[in-house]
Write a structure and sequence with these properties.
Elements: H1 4-31, E1 39-53, E2 58-62, E3 65-73, H2 75-85, E4 89-99, E5 105-116, E6 129-130, E7 133-134, E8 153-157, E9 162-174, E10 177-191, H3 204-209, E11 213-224, E12 231-243, H4 246-249, E13 253-263, H5 265-311
Antiparallel strand pairs: 1-2, 1-3, 1-13, 3-4, 4-5, 5-6, 6-7, 8-9, 9-10, 10-11, 11-12, 12-13
Helix pairs in contact: 1-5
Amino acid sequence: MRRRASLVLLSFAVFFAAMAPTLRWYAFPRLAKIPPNQYQETVLEAKPATLLNYSTLKAEKIEKITIIQTLKGNVEESRKIERDAGRDVVVWDSLSFVAGPDGAMVSRIPERYIFDAHTQDPVHATGEMVDGDPVRREGIEFKWPFLTEKRDYRYFDAQTRTSAPIHYQGTRTFRGLDVYYFEQTIPWTKVPMPKTMPVKGITPEILAGSGLTRWYTTRRMFWVDPVTGAPVNGEEIHKEELRNARAMMGQDTVTVFEGHVKMREDYITAVVELVESNRLMVLLLVSYLPWTFVVLALTLLALALWLEARSRRPEADPGPTPSPVTAPV
C-alpha cells in the first residue's frame, strides 16, 4: 500500500473483522451469565380452586389459592462449588409457598437448584435437593438457555423428582414479544408427601402409615423469550389426590388441590419489562455489534482499495511540446 490513509483503513478493517466473531464466540459465553446473587419473586394464583380442608377432611371449592415462588442466589455456596467445577456456577435456593384464601400455609416446598451460569445445564453437587430429598437433575428447570432453540428440552419436575420432555409447540406473540411456546404433561404419578404439613401433629409418616398415597398430574405451559431464555409467562393445570383414603376419610380418593394456576398480572408486566431490557444486551453481543463490525470491515476495506487504486492510476501523457512559431522579417 502506497498511501498511508489506505494502510490505516485496512488496519481498521482487519480489526473490525476480527472483533465480529470474537464478540459472538468468545465474549458472549463469558459475559451472558445469570448473576450468582439474583433474587426473584413470582406470585401465581388459581381462581377458583378446589382445596382439601384438613379439619373436615373434605375437598371444598374456594375463591383462590396463592403460590409464592422465590428464587434466591446463594453466593457463598456457588463459590464453593465453582472451585471444584472449574466454571461459573449459580446456586438457587427456591421456595414454593402455597397459601389458602385466609393466608394460612397449605404447603411449602424448598429446593436447591445448581446450574451452569451460561448454559443453564445442571451441575451435580452436594446439596442438590427437593424438599430435603437429594436429587440429580437432568435437563433444565425455571429457565431455558440463552438463544433458546425451536426444539424439545428435558424439564425437571420437582413433584416427581424426574425429568421429562417439554415440547416446543410453535412461535407466538405475547405482550409484543415473539416467544416460543412449550408444553409438558405429567401423567398421574405417585409422589412423596410434603415434609411440612398444614396441620400440626400430622406428619408424612403418619399419613403413610395409614396407607394413604399422594398422586399428582399437571399440564405445564411456558411462553419463553428465545433471546434470554426467560419465561415471560407460565401456567399449570394442576391436580393432586390422596388415594387409599377410605379408612381415614370415608372415600377411596380425595382431591387435595385442583386448579388452573396462572401468574398474577402485575408480575407478568414486571417480567416482560425485565426481559425487554436484558434481551438488548444479549442481542448486542450475538447480533447487532458483530454484524455492524462486519459491515464496517467491508466498507473500510472497499475504501482502502479504492484509495490505493486511485494512487496507482498513471498520469495522463501531455503530448509533445509545440515549437514556437517565428514570424518572417
